[in-house]
Every structure is written in structure tokens, then in C-alpha cells.
Amino acid sequence: MTTTTPALSGPKPLPPPTSLQQQSSAQRAPPQPQQQHTGLRTPSNRKTIYDRNLNRTRTTELSRASFAYLFSEMVTYAQKRVTGIQDLERRLNEAGYPLGQRLLPLLLYRTSTPTHPAPRPTRILPLLQFIAHTLWRHLFSRSADSIESSSTNPTEYMIIDNEPLVNQYISVPKEMSQLNCAAFVAGIVEGVACSVGLGCAVSAHNAGEEGGMWPGKTVFLIRFEEEVVKREGAGK
Amino acid sequence: MLARVVYSLIIINKAGGLVFNRDFNSALNKVSVNDLLVLAGTFHGVHAITKSLTPSSLGIPSKDRTGIEVLESSQFRLTCFQTFTGTKFLLFTEPNQPNVDVIIRKVYELYADYVMKNPFYQLEMPIRCEAFERHLMSYIRAK
Fold first, then answer.
1. Interface ipTM
2. Nearest CA to CA, how far is A71 from chain B (Å)?
3. Spatial separation of the C-alpha atoms in residues A29 and B14, rounded to whole Å
4. What homologous superfamily does CATH list for A62-234?
């Protein structure tokens, strides 16, 4: 290495004799290796997110402000060419779904130890626990506020978050009061649940009361498919 | 304890339009929206004039020349804070209210958080953000 660097840094011996007849500017600025601009920026130490250890990012946190701006742009983007609130929520949900599919194996990998591999949650209750604790803690650094099951419909379960991080800076205008931008988080939950084979549809609903302690309270309603609940009952 | 010493807040966009106003003291006379719009526009103009009044002999670079910052009368004090993008925050307080700069910076912080990070807010348009008003009121009340 030490023998090659002086040759690279000192360009004077490099130009062949023919270049003396060529433009003098070419001599002053020897041709540099052309940088390929792909538009992707890499850190100065050349370590991208793909070079990092999967486990090492466990404690690193992101700036909340930069996430807020990014999410704000995501909502603005999703709002383009939508026909209504349902359509907008569907788009946010679809944006979160692949995230859930990828987070499941990542989180299972991280919670595993060489001697005790973490089992994949294959039943409803362990799955809800996994979502409300492991997933929530990974995404928002805290657990969800509660898990409830519907008293009227055995296929419905609810995860309740008093103050969803994604909605922290968002004020929904009066004419769109049905909208809850946490549909994005609902999409993540749906992605996780469908990846373990418990098919369901997840939606986010506003449950905060005006002037109450938690005006941004959100209920994530998880509607499992009939056969999922049937299978759950058969295994007991 | 006296009545609340922060009277009201006005936010003016970079074009001189009124985008937000809120009274924190119910004892104040009501000002019509029309008058408020005129007030905002007038202040915007006066601010621009005062900015160009800085004597050039002082050798202050033009980017450091600020316009009117404080306007005081026997009954109230008007403090103006202008952001880098030209948005102005006007805070009407009692003349002896201390730490107005701290209050106005906090208001700016709330604006940056709950207005600028809200995907439903359109730039330079009137502010109708419920979360901003909620946090603003609870901050001023706690003062």
C-alpha cells in the first residue's frame, strides 16, 4: 500500500511523452477516475445500511423531527389523486404493509439468541403480544397502551395507543374528521399478522374525546378472517 | 395574581397577510377581523420601512438589519419576532412582562412542530391546526 500511494498522488511522472504536444490544461489536471453518480449517497466510510450488523441498530434512534417531515410528505403524496378518505387510508395502509412483512423476521432475529431461537407467533394472543410489545417498542420505544378483544365479535381484537407517534404533529381538518393517518401503522400491523399466516384486515380509528386527556387516542381494529378464528378454536 | 399578562398573538405570513390570531385574555375589546387584517398589513409595511431606515454609516450588513422589534406604550408592549423565512410573530403583552423572548421562541417552536409538520397545512394560508391551538393555549395558560 505504501509503495503505491506516492505513485498515485504524484501525477508528474505519469503523463506519457506524447501529452507534451497536447493541451497544457490536460497536463495540469490529470484525468481523474470518473465518479459514477447513481444518485445514491454513501457515508464517507463506505458503510451503507446493508453493511451494518443487523443487531447493531437495536439502540440507535432516529430524529423525530425528520420522521415527522418524511411522514408529512408521505401523507401529502398519498393525498394526490385520491377519491376519498377511504382511498387515502388504503394508500397509507399499503405503504405500511411491506414494512410489517420485513419487520417480522428482523425482530424475530433480534430477539433470538443462539441457544433460544424466538418462536414465530402462530396464535392470536402471542401475535397480539408480539405486536403490542416487541413491534411497538421497536417502532416507538414504548409498548402499546392496551390490548382488548371485542365482546360482541370473536374475530375482532383491538390494540389501543393513546398517542400514536405518527399523529403527534398532525391536525386533521374538520371536513376529514374520519381520517386517521395511523392507517400507516395499521398497515404495518396487517403486514406482520398476515406474514405469520393469520389473515386479517387492520384499520385505525379515532377514539379520543374532545377536551379529554388523550385527544389523539387511536384504536387499531384487527378483524381476523373466519378460518383463523376457527383454527384457533380447534387447536384448544 | 393579576390577569394574564400575555394579551394576544398574531402571526403574519411573508406577504403581509394575517394567518393566525388568538386572544388570551377575555377582558380585551374585540377587534374585527377586517381591522386585524389591516393591522397585519400595516405592520408589515412599517416593518419594511424601519428595516430600510438603518443608517448605512453603521456598516451593518443588510442581512443583519432588522426592522421594528419592540413597540411600547403605557398599556401594552408589542414584540415582533421575524423568522428567516419572513414569517412574523407579534406578541402583545403587559409592558413589564419579563422573558417575552422566551415565550415568543416557544411559540415559534410550537409553530414549527404543529403547523409546519402538519401535512394538511398549506403554506402561507390561514392556520387551522387544532393541535397547534391546543398546545399554544396550554403553554400560555401555564405561564
1. 0.84
2. 8
3. 47
4. Trafficking protein particle complex subunit 3 (3.30.1380.20)
